[in-house]
Amino acid sequence: DAKTTQPPSMDCAEGRAANLPCNHSTISGNEYVYWYRQIHSQGPQYIIHGLKNNETNEMASLIITEDRKSSTLILPHATLRDTAVYYCIVRAPPSLGGTASKLTFGTGTRLQVTL
Amino acid sequence: GAVVSQHPSRVICKSGTSVKIECRSLDFQATTMFWYRQFPKQSLMLMATSNEGSKATYEQGVEKDKFLINHASLTLSTLTVTSAHPEDSSFYICSARDIQGYGYTFGSGTRLTVV
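Structure tokens for the assembled complex are given below, as produced in the milestone run.
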């Protein structure tokens, strides 16, 4: 799986948009970009994933550059409950019905949302 | 959505004893489950991949005789920490992949303290 690079920490004021960058310059054609977050002392929570088009769901938006070498996770209106470590993971999707391959976590970005 | 239940959430045991952690997929079948370990202020480290009906695959440096994994059904995997020592104290997290989809769902984690 391609390696990712994320800033170790970021701060964001409550109510403002949080933009979390991720570099994945060695991403290959069939690899997706996944984002998870881990709130303190809990298991990771899936946020969003995408291949090359921008994606949006109820939690966040994912913007992937045209060359796919970097992406940005956007939390449009951050709240204190969004304080967590955010992980960007790049990997090929497991084949439907086939053996699932592992999800490898990097060091992530620790997002602190403040009043 | 898919839910993974992990028990216990916290356990304290004496050095030399064994501890079993259960990971259940509640509303889906999981042919593959993953076990992670996380030390304070560090990222998740994959310990092993558990496949239903076959032997688990352990990551390099993880002792298979110390961390026993059983995946006897499509909804249950267990991790047994045998002859636990204080250095085994950690946060253990399981993850399961829905055989009908592409997502990885995580349990809430087990905080193990060996005294």
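Strands of chain A lie at 9-13, 18-23, 32-38, 45-50, 55-56, 61-64, 70-75, 84-91, 109-114. The radius of gyration of chain A is 14 Å. Further analysis is deferred to the final report.
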